[in-house]
Design goal:
The chain is an alpha+beta fold. The protein has three helices and eight strands, in the order βββαβββββαα. The protein has one domain: Quinone Oxidoreductase, Chain A, domain 1, CATH 3.90.180.10.
């Protein structure tokens, strides 16, 4: 499969599209055929700080994309609530690839009324709201 890799360089990172191995499904994870992904602020910053420095080991190149939206291809052991064919979105490492492995706890249904291209940018804020609510419990007199 193809993936967009952040590669260190003398003046900061660059993108390189490479052939990489498709992720293997593991327990508690969902394999998604990616339809959309987005670049968030942290990745943008990381890309610009991926500098080669004399006398130091090169920073690790990695697949970009911290979230993804797409179609479930396979589910790992212990995963419930999703099935192959479902449209989902969530955080992941490596959303800029044809397939991404998402933690099943981070997966949420993708809105059925949205075009595929408009779904992914919603992942990060929606996930942050969801995690904040889950960690803090109900907040009286407040709306997210």
């Amino acid at each position: 499969m193809k993936a967009a890799i952040m590669v260190p360089g003398a003046d900061g990172g660059t993108w390189d599209v490479r052939d990489v191995q498709r992720p293997n499904i593991t327990a508690g994870h969902v394999l998604v055929r990616v339809h959309a992904s987005s670049l968030n602020r942290a990745e943008f910053r990381r890309l610009h700080t991926l500098r080669l420095q004399p006398g130091r080991a090169a920073p690790e190149a990695r697949t970009g994309g911290g979230d993804a939206a797409g179609e479930v291809v396979e589910i790992g052991a212990g995963v419930s609530g999703v099935k192959p064919g479902d449209r989902v979105m969530g955080r992941c490492a490596g959303g800029f690839a044809e397939y991404a492995l998402l933690d099943a706890r981070e997966v949420m249904p993708a809105p059925m009324t949205s075009a595929r291209e408009r779904v992914s940018p919603r992942v990060h804020p929606a996930g942050r709201i969801r995690r904040t609510r889950r960690r803090s419990g109900p907040l009286p007199d407040r709306r997210a």
